[in-house]
Amino acid sequence: MSSIEEIGGALEPAGGGEEQPVQVPESLPVLPLRDIVIYPFMIVPLFVSRERSIRAVDEALGENRMILLVSQRDLDKEEPAAEDLYTVGTVAVIMRMLKLPDGRTRILVQGLTRARLESVEEAVGYLRARVAVVQEQHAPERSLEVEALVRNVRGSMEKAANLGKNISPEVMAIVANLDEPGRLADLAASNLELKVEDAQSVLDIADTTARLRRVNDLLNKEIEVLTVQQEINTQARADIDRSQREFYLRQQLKAIQSELGEGNELAEEIAQFREKIEASKMPKPAEEEALRQLKKLERMHPDAAETATLRNWLEIMTDLPWSKASVDNLDLAKAEQILNDDHYGLEKVKERIVEALAVRKLKEKPKGSILCLVGPPGVGKTSLGRSIARALDRKFVRLSLGGLHDEAEIRGHRRTYVGAMPGRIIQALQQAGTNNPLIMLDEIDKVGADFRGDPSSALLEVLDPEQNNSFRDNYLGVTFDLSNVMFMTTANVLDTVQPALKDRMEVIRLAGYTEEEKIEIARPRAASPKGMRRSCTSRRRTCTNFWECRRSRRTRC
Predict the structure, then answer these.
(1) What is the percentage of the chain residues whose pLDDT exceeds 70?
(2) Which residue, of 316, 325, 393, 529, is most buried by count of CB atoms within 10 Å of its CB?
(3) Radius of gyration of the CA atoms of the chain, in A
(4) Is 8 left (phi over 0), alpha (psi -120 to 50) or beta?
C-alpha cells in the first residue's frame, strides 16, 4: 500500500526573518497528504510512494520545484479526487529529492505560503490545480489582545514542555524570540499532536489574531491532557514504589524470621489462605475484608492471642461456598415419583409440594411464601423435606430450633467474644458445601425469647426474600447471599409462632395416620404384588394403593 509518511522530529521554520514575497504560478502539481498538515516556513521530509504523487513530484522538479501540499479528508483513500481534498493547502518548494531502491521517493520540502484551490484537473498521471495565494490578514497595530495571546502561547508551550511534551530546545528558543503572531501560531501548531481536522482548521485561518486564538485553545486542551497523563504516571509510579518497598520489607522480615527460626509455618499458612481467597471467588467487599485481615495476620506474631481467632475466621471465610452451587433438577414427574416412593398417602400434601416445584420451574427465584409443614410428631414432616431435596438434587441440612433462646445462634457471635462462632445458618451452608441447599428449620414453634434476644425476629430476615440477599452474620462481618437457599419449616402447632413469622409461611397441615395406614407403612415393600395396579376412579393416574382400596371396598383414594 502506498503511503506518505512524516519522519524526523519537530518541524522548524526556515528562518526567523521577515516573510519574503513569493512568486507563485497560477497552476501547480498537487501532492495529496494522508496524515499530516504542512504550514508555511516549515521544513519537513516526506516519503512519496503512490504513482500519481511521484509523477507530481517529477513534474514539479521539471518546472520550478514548486508543489502544492494538500491534506486529504479520507486517510484510507488511495486515489483521492478533487472533492476528497481540503480547499486550503501550502505551496512548498522541493529542496532535495532522493530515489530509494524500493521505488519510493524521499523529498525535503519547505512551506512557502498558504494557497486556496480554485479548481483541480486531472493531468497526465497526476493532479494539477489552479491556486490563489491566501494573503495573511495582520492586525492594524500590535494590540493588547495580540500581545496577551503571544505571551499565553509562549507560556503554554513552555508548560507543555515541562509536562513532558516532546519539544526540542531549538524550537523553544525560536518560540521565545519569535514576535510575528502568524508565524508563532504556525510553529506552535506544528509541534502539537493534532488530528488532521484540527491542524487543517489552523491552516484555514488567514487572520493572524484569530489563528493565534485558535492555537491558544488547542494548547490549553493539550496541557489538560498532559496534566491528567502526568497524574496517572505519578500515581502508577507511587504504587510501584510502594509495592517494591513492601516487597523489600517483606523479604527482610522473612530473613529475620529465618534467623530466629520462626515464622516459616505462618508464612506458608498465609500463602495458602491467599490462594484459597482467590479460588473462592468471593464478592468484592468480602474479598477486600479477607485480604485486609490476612495482611493483619501477616504482621502478627505467631504466638499472639488474636492469631488463632483470625485463623479460624479465615478458615470459615474460605470454606464457605461463595460461588459453589448445585444444578436443580426440575423434573416434576421424577419429583412426584420420589415423593410416592418415600411416603404413603398424603396425596394433598404431595400435590401442593409438586405445585410449589412447578412454580420454581417457571421462575428460578420465586419470592413466594416459605412452606411450613404442620402436624403431630412422626407424620413425616422432616422426611418430606429430605425427599424434596433429593428430587431437586440439592444438599439437605436440618436445623433443630427446639429450645433456641439466643439470637446469636441465628446471627452469630461477634469475634470479640471468647468462643465466638458463626450462626447456625452460616454453619449449615458450610456443612452443605453449596450456596443453594435445602435448609429444614425444624420445630420452629419451640423457639423461645429471653434477655439474650428473640431468635424469631432474626429469622424474619433469613426467611424474607427481599432481605436475605444481604444477610449479615455478626461473626463474618460481611454480607452473604441467602436468596439461593430453599427454606422449609416444620411445627407441631402454630399458636406459639410469632405472627409476623407466620405471615411469611404457607402452612400445609399433615394429619396423623389411621391404623390401616400404619399397617400399610409397616408392610415390607416386597409384599405388595408387582404390576397389580389399576386406574383410580377419583384420579386419572396410576394408583399404588390398590390392595388398600380392595380391603376397604373403596373405589376412591
Answers:
(1) 87
(2) 316
(3) 43
(4) left
* CATH number of the domain to which 359 belongs: 3.40.50.300
CA torsion through residues 244, 246, 247, 251, sign: positive
As given in the structure block, the three cell numbers for residue 366 are: 420465586
| Cα–Cα distance for residue pair 94/63, rounded to 1 Å | 11
For residue 193, give the amino acid letter. E
For residue 540, what pLDDT is reported? 33
Beta carbons within 10 angstroms of residue 453's beta carbon: 16
Residue type, 532: M
DSSP letters spanning 265-334:
HHHHHHHHHHHHHHHHT--HHHHHHHHHHHHHHHHS-TT-HHHHHHHHHHHHHHHS-SS--PPP---HHH
Q: Which three cell numbers stand for residue 33?
A: 497528504
SS3 503: helix
| Number of structural domains the chain divides into | 4
Say if residues 538 and 531 touch (Cβ distance below 8 Å). no
User: What average pLDDT does this structure show over 404-428?
Assistant: 85
Q: Are residues 305 and 430 in the same domain?
A: no
Is the same domain home to 484 and 545?
no
Residue % of the chain over a pLDDT of 90: 11
pLDDT of residue 382: 86
String of b and e for 188-214 (b: at least 16 CB within 10 Å)?
A: bbbbbebebebbbbbbebbebbebbbb
Among 268, 274, 235, 272, which residue's Cα sits nearest to residue 254?
A: 268
Q: How confident is the model at residue 342 (pLDDT cuts 50, 70, 90)?
A: confident
Written as nine digits, the cell of 55 is 509523477
Which is nearest to 401 in space by CA: 454, 441, 457, 449?
A: 441
CA 342 vs CA 337, 357, 385, 388, 541: distances in Å: 9, 17, 11, 10, 18
Length of the chain (residues): 557
Tell me the torsion sign for CA atoms 428, 431, 434, 438. Answer: negative
Residues 353 and 310 placed together within one structural domain of the fold: no
d(CA 397, CA 383): 12
Query: 164, 230 in Cβ contact below 8 A?
Result: yes
Tell me the three-class secondary structure of 84-100, residue by residue: HECCEEEEEEEEEEEEC
pTM: 0.48
Helix (H) or strand (E) holding 442: strand 438-442
Mean pLDDT of 530-541: 36
For residues 284 and 361, membership in a common domain is answered with no
Q: Are residues 457 and 308 in the same domain?
A: no
State how far the Cα of 334 lies from the Cα of 329, in Å rounded to an integer.
9
What residue numbers bound the domain in which 107 lies? Answer: 5-133
126 and 74 co-located in one domain: yes
C-alpha cell at 246: 513492601
Residue 551 has pLDDT above 70, yes or no: no
